Amino acid sequence: MKSIMKSLVALSVTSALSAAAVNAATYEVVDLGEVNSLKFSYGQQVNNLGESAVQGTDSYNLPVQFQYLDEDDYDTIVNNADRTHELVNNLEDIEDEAALRAGNPTANDLVWVTRFLEGQGSSRYQKIGDTVAMINRSGQSEEFVVFDTPFTNTSTLTRSTIDFINGITDNGWVYGNGSAPYLPLDFTESDGDEVTHWVRDFATRAFISTDYGQTIKPILAPETRFYNGQSAILDIKGTTAVGYVSNRLNQNRVDDIEDETGGCADPNIVDDIPFEVCVQNLSSDLYFLTAYQWDLDSEGNVVGETDLGLLVTPNESDERVYRSYAQAINANGVAVGFSHGWIDETETSPSQNEPRRLYPVVYKNGEVTSLVEDHGEVGEGRAYDINDNGIAVGYVTRSVNGSVREKFYHIDTNAPAGDMTMIFPDDFFNGSSSTAFAINNAGLIVGEGEFETQNSTSQRRTHGFLYDINNETFTDLNDFLTCNSDYTIIEARDINDNNEISATAVVKVPRRDAKGELMLSDSGEQLVEDVVRAVTLRPISGDIEDCTQVSEDRVERKGAGLGAGLLAMLSVFGFRRKRNR
Length: 581
Known about the structure:
Elements lengths: L1 H17 L5 E2 L1 E5 L6 E9 L5 E8 L11 H14 L12 H5 L5 H12 L12 E6 L4 E4 L18 E6 L5 E5 L4 E6 L5 E6 L5 E5 L7 E3 L11 E7 L2 E10 L1 H8 L8 H4 L4 H7 L5 E10 L5 E8 L14 E6 L5 E8 L13 E9 L2 E4 L10 E6 L4 E10 L2 E10 L21 E6 L4 E7 L11 E7 L4 E4 L11 E8 L5 E10 L17 E12 L5 E2 L5 H6 L6 H17 L1
Protein name: DUF3466 family protein
Organism: Thalassotalea euphylliae
Keywords: Signal
């Protein structure tokens, strides 16, 4: 009976996609729940049991350690607020300077402090990461701690980590990658001044949890010298995981660290800065990264490892850092991702500075093969997912009317290397940028694309989409919602084999301040605001709702509250998520 119902639901979805003339409500929005500790949540992945991996950010009551700020810092915070408060949406000038300097700011003033800290590049200031991992199993999204720790002698987490939850398997294994917390390190400089630096042990590390986040198993990289390496698990199929690891050091960075005349090994340098901070400051491009595969046992322990390799072999004199990533793997052991490759794909004797880009690739039978036949026809690209039938999806950049645009594609990786052909379906419009993030075994693709043909801001707004390979139909996911839905789907990240979609929506909710308290107008009325919320879209069985009578003004209203500030935040966070999923 279950399989019959699934077939009926799938048939309903496919039929709805074919009826392009009707704005049909064939999906219902399941809100994954308001999270009391933070403002924004994002759908990442949904397994075949309907359990979801959820990302969160913009925590309330960020734990600022005011004892590490001095009077000069407070002066700067107050001056910043005085000069710019009229330019910042929903922020006022400092409300209570005395309370601020006493370490007990109002919610408004707390935001000015966190903005100040986020703008400091020096290790002398507290760091804020504020990206958390959550699981939704029964309607409520709940955070689990990856590598963050409480401040000494407190139960308060540092909130300085960036934790990516990249997926949840059907047997409840949760996986991803996260950073170490920044912790205070007291240090006495050569002139006797006592200062504090904020230091972390590593930038990002893979993890797996076989008990829904109750216990975390870190997965270390092969190369961990100096800054403890980098690793990430980006997908798991069965007991095979893929992602990336650091496998080699950048010798130029090593020379800088070991240099006794100006480097981290110089006694005069470490007299005024801790060795750990010196290395941390040089950690950018410290490692080569390679696509990697882990074989796991039934308890999630690593029992085998494979370096999946790089698309090209650089010149021995080439000192640049090279990288490759495995983003997804299917049940047949075929993985996809992206790797550095030559712009001239026919080059076999590369020069020391051979022109290169990151191209979508397939890792199959011990070989790395570009999914782009002619690198001169596209810019960069990514492959984000592959189904068990060998169909991969992602995006490449192409020139459209003189402008560079991301365009989503699908490609059959079963074909021989020379015969694989990318198919670029029509999306929202010719000049729209679009990205495909996932494909299920029924050939349904989900992603995001720009739906605005014009926008006075620097970035067009996006909607989630669903594309059906079988009948070549592309549909804005918002067209599948019930009439007068409160939600606007701005991206779709995953689709399982029940055709349930993990997505992110904009919805209007009661406005809360930086401490999580409800905000009222001067007349005592509840204020509202637009937030992004993780949702699951579930197919609706039964009659299709005809929304053709919905007024045009509602179409204009949908998503209109997505202001420049929220759009900018989504842009920054969205970039980080693309890199890690």
